[in-house]
Design goal:
With 131 residues, the protein is mainly α. The chain contains six helices and no strands.
Length: 131
């Protein structure tokens, strides 16, 4: 197995691959998936099957899919999907500790930056105070 080239460094400078849980349906699909025999990667490089596709290629394919789905005007990016997931989990009432497990964040302050707060929810919280 080759080392990941896109590992995030911890505050102490060490780099480790993070593992996060995935949805059961996706796990089933991945278990049933057989990559071409010449590679071990789910998304192999077109030019060299022994290497994964680059982040730039992945981003271009993602943007092409967004365009094909007529979602370009919605501002999707690779990062916005992560922000949306974290915000939806938070709005559904999951604790920051659970969200941290799902996303693989080590630092809660980093995780909190992804949560978008709806101004209406803030107003409702103030109105719900029984003072």
């Amino acid at each position: 197995m080759t080392k990941a080239r896109t590992r995030k460094a911890a505050p102490d400078g060490s780099k480790q691959t993070r593992q996060v849980p995935i949805v059961k349906d996706l796990l089933t699909e991945l278990k049933n998936f057989s990559p071409p025999k010449k590679t071990v990667f789910l998304f192999p490089s077109k030019n060299d099957a022994m290497k994964p596709i680059s982040r730039a290629v992945y981003d271009r394919r993602f943007r092409k899919s967004v365009k094909k789905a007529n979602l370009t005007s919605r501002g999707f990016s690779l990062h916005s999907t992560r922000r949306g997931l974290i915000t939806r989990l938070h709005e559904a009432g999951y604790s920051l500790a659970i969200i941290q497990q799902v996303t693989g964040h080590r630092d809660l302050n980093s995780l909190k930056q992804y949560i978008e707060i709806n101004p209406e929810a803030t107003s409702k919280a103030i109105e719900d105070l029984d003072l």
